[in-house]
Amino acid sequence: MHASAAQTQTGVLLGIGDSVMSGAGLGRGRLTFIAIAADKIKRRLALTVFAADGEPCSQHVQRFPEEAAHFDASAANNVVVISCGHNDILHAGRGAKGVAAALSSIRTLCTDYHRAGWKVVVETRQKIVPAIDLVDQISFNTQLAKNFRAYNCDAISDIWRDGHLGENGNPGDPTYYEGDQVHPNERGQALWATYTAKAIDSVLH
Predict the structure, then answer these.
(1) CATH of the domain at 189
(2) Of 3, 70, 120, 144, which residue is least crowded by CB atoms under 10 Å?
(3) Nearest CA to 126 among 55, 39, 54, 195?
(4) Parallel, antiparallel, or unpaired for β 46-51 and 2-3?
(5) Which of 10, 112, 104 lies closest to 69, judged by CA?
(6) What residues make up the domain containing 163?
């Protein structure tokens, strides 16, 4: 899904992600975490989302010139939230190779937006065992949380630390997950949004 809203003078909130950000599994009219976060933050920003089911970060790297060209790079409060990586691991394969591929794509995308003048928020991801080996998820998320500033990110929304969606969570818990044990349900999306909104607020003037 590629949904967009017109810009306002205050800036843009751009969400780049995959099926979680596009709302897979949610019923019609239910808000994704990025939409909920947009309503929570202290400054009004026009929300645009580039996200689709199964989409890896590497595709957004390839489309960066096209996607970034939609916006005025001189705006002081343009914020991009980059929330992807699972599909990169799935495409590249299990183990260190897949983790390295995912982190490389995220680092490139964060750097591209940083150099274009955006405030960059990156996110660790939710637990989705058994879809991806737990050891790979631990490696990916801990490395991203440790090195996000070296990736030219201004802030991190660390979902992996959450007790329900992160490392100690249970994807089989219907309180926060859809039945596929991958996608957060409405309550899970709302919980996720609290992390996203806090990170966005931390980079706004």
Answers:
(1) 3.40.50.1110
(2) 70
(3) 195
(4) antiparallel
(5) 112
(6) 2-203
Q: How far apart are CA 126 and CA 119, in angstroms?
A: 23
Q: Are 128 and 137 in contact (CB under 8 A)?
A: yes
Quick count: other Cβ atoms within 10 Å of Cβ 93? 12
Phi, psi of 9, rounded to the nearest 5 degrees: -70, -15
**Amino acid identity, residue 127?**
K
pTM > 0.90: yes
| H helix runs in 69-204, sequence order | 86-92, 96-115, 134-147, 186-203
Q: Please state, in angstroms and as integers, the Cα–Cα distance from residue 103 to each residue in 67, 85, 99, 141, 183, following that order.
A: 20, 7, 6, 9, 21
Which parts of the chain register pLDDT below 50? 1-9
pLDDT per position as a tens digit, 2-15: 444 443 347 999 99
The pLDDT value recorded for residue 74 is 80
The pairing of beta strand 46-51 with beta strand 12-17: parallel
Per residue in 34-44, pLDDT (tens digit) is: 999 999 999 99
Please count the CA atoms within 13 angstroms of the CA of 76 that sit on its side-chain side. Answer: 6
Number of domains making up the chain = 1
